[in-house]
Amino acid sequence: MIKKLRGYLIARYDNMCNSYTCKRLEEEAKSLNIEMNTIGVCDTIICENKILHKAHQLNKVDFLINRHKHGHIKDRLNSLAKKSYNNLSSFNTYLDKFSQLENISSLHFLKPKYFLASADKSFEEVSKILSDPFVIKGLDGSEGDQVYLIKSEEDLKKIRTFYGIDKEFLFEEFIESSFGRDIRMYAIKGKIKAAMLRKSNMDFRANFALGAQLSPYDINPKMEKISEDIYKITGLDFVGIDLLFGRDNFYFCEVNVMAGIKGIEKATGTNIAREILLSIKEDFNE
């Protein structure tokens, strides 16, 4: 008799009723006879080296899915699982956009020119390195948050006023040929399960959360090679990969270690949540 798989889905709160991704993972776990409980980081405490959830000590489980970014509690919860998705070291490393650009490479895409610096840099100083306009990104934002197209010194002043001069940003070359459009791929262990085109007529960012239109995108051999290369480098089992359109080649944009699945499921009809849980089951059936 095969032992029933038990796992935790780590999120901000126990009740993530407004999170499409959490709900879909819970639904598919139930349909596959996997016992998976959502554990909220904000509903958990660590006391005297014990991990307590609603006053009860949590038991060890087979697997854990990370869907919360930061904190000691999230990290400690990972110690309860035989296997984490994504594994904690890769998850924490590749949350950071600077680490992504420093470490991820492939013969099948280009990377924008970039540098890391605090927000006190002048428009003239940055333009000499990247030309203008240019893009700045917070290091761990998602859904288009903390991503700005900078066209003037006045734009930079607004950033300094809002965030302070000490905040570190990734300063990047603006890929004009990809204005308002990009490709999002969802890959499991280096294999692309679905891809979509994201397109915005109102913003240089093409995030679904910001209202971009979505449509399926045909997967080609170059995209498959990119996905394989990223998996070999990062070890990220489940990952969203974003590519920009250059004139003659793709440009790497970023990877998302806890990518939402609402847009890509709806755009492509692919049951990503089920693919994730089936992949986990396969790991424990070997």
TrEMBL record:
- UniProt keyword annotation of Ribonucleoprotein present: no
User: According to its record, what are the GO cellular component terms?
Assistant: cytoplasm
Entry-linked Pfam families: RimK
Q: Which SUPFAM superfamilies match?
A: Glutathione synthetase ATP-binding domain-like
One GO term in the molecular function aspect is: ATP binding
Query: Which UniProt keywords are listed?
Result: ATP-binding, Ligase, Nucleotide-binding
Q: Which InterPro entries match?
A: ATP-grasp, ATP-grasp_RimK-type, ATP_grasp_subdomain_1
Domain spans labelled ATP-grasp: 101-281
Per its UniProt record, what PANTHER family does this chain match?
A: BETA-CITRYLGLUTAMATE SYNTHASE B-RELATED, RIBOSOMAL PROTEIN S6 MODIFICATION PROTEIN
User: What is the name listed in the Swiss-Prot or TrEMBL entry for this protein?
Assistant: Alpha-L-glutamate ligase, RimK family
Lineage, uppermost ranks: Bacteria, Bacillati, Bacillota, Tissierellia, Tissierellales
